[in-house]
Amino acid sequence: MLRAYLLRQWKLVVLVAGFAVLNWGVFWLYRLPGEPLLYAWALCLALGLVMFAVGYFRFVQRHRELEWLLRKAGENALPLPPARGLLERDYQALLQAVCGSRAALSVENNSRLQDMTDYYTLWAHQIKTPIAAMHLLLQETPCPEMEAELLKIEQYVEMVLGYLRLGSASTDYVFRERELDPLLRQAVRKYARLFILKKISLDLRETGRTVLTDEKWLSFVIEQLLSNALKYTPEGGFVSMGMGKRL
After folding, report:
1. How many CA atoms lie within 13 A of 70 on its CB side?
2. For residues 232 and 193, is the Cβ–Cβ distance under 8 A?
3. Would you call 230 exposed, middle or buried from its count of C-beta atoms within 10 A (0-12, 13-18, 19+)?
4. Mean pLDDT of 23-49
5. Is 84 left (phi over 0), alpha (psi -120 to 50) or beta?
6. Burial 35-62 (b: 16+ CB within 10 A, else e)
C-alpha cells in the first residue's frame, strides 16, 4: 500500500526533489555557507515527513472505506462517507445518480419479467384443456401420427413450465437420496408410445446407483435427454440408457 501511495504522489515527490536541487545549486553558485541550507533542509524534511504520515494515514483510511463500499455495491443507495471537497461531492452525486438509475432499471426489468412469467404460466395451464380434449377425441378415433404430435406438444408445455419454475424465487428443492433406476423407468414409460410409433429400440440397463438429488428436477433432466434422443434418432434406430455403451 505504501508503494501505491508513493505512485499516487510521484509528482509531489519530483517537485520537492527539484526544489532541493535548485536550492543546492543557488547556494553553490553564490558560494554561500552550507550549514544554513542543511538546517533548512532538516526542518523541511521533518515537516515533510509529518505531512507524508498524515497523507498516508488518510490514504489508507480512504482505501478501507472504498473497500467497504465495494462490498455494498449491490445496494440501491450507497452509504457514502462525508465528501472532502467540491470534486468529491460531484463524484458522489454522480455515483448516487447512477445507483438510482440502476435501481429504476432493475424494478422495471423485474416488473416485465413478472408479467412475462404470469402470461406464460397462464398460457401453459390453459393449453392443457385443449390437449385433454384432443386425447379424448383420439380415444374415439385413433390416429398414431396425431397422437405422436400431441405427445410432443405436451412435452413442450412441460418444458415451458419447467423453465418458469427454474427461474422462480419460490422454487423448492428437496434433496435426498434416491435410486436412479426407478426414475429412468418412469421416464421411459412416459415416452414409450413415441418409441413404439417411431419403431425405435430401447436398451435400458440397470445402474444400481443411488444419487443425492431433487427427484422432480432430475426426472425433468432425464425426460429432456430422452426427448432429444427420440428427436434425433432416425426411425428404426436404437437408444441405450444405463451404465454401459452399445458398440
Report:
1. 6
2. no
3. buried
4. 77
5. beta
6. eebeeeeeeeeeeeeeebeeeeeebeee
Residue type, 145: E
pLDDT digits (tens, 9 = 90+) for 142-178: 887 788 788 888 888 887 877 777 766 556 678 889 8
Burial class of residue 193, CB neighbours in 10 A (0-12, 13-18, 19+):
middle
155: cell is 412435452
Type of residue numbered 211: V
Grid coordinates in use for 132?
A: 385433454
Q: Which amino acid, one-letter code, is at 25?
A: G
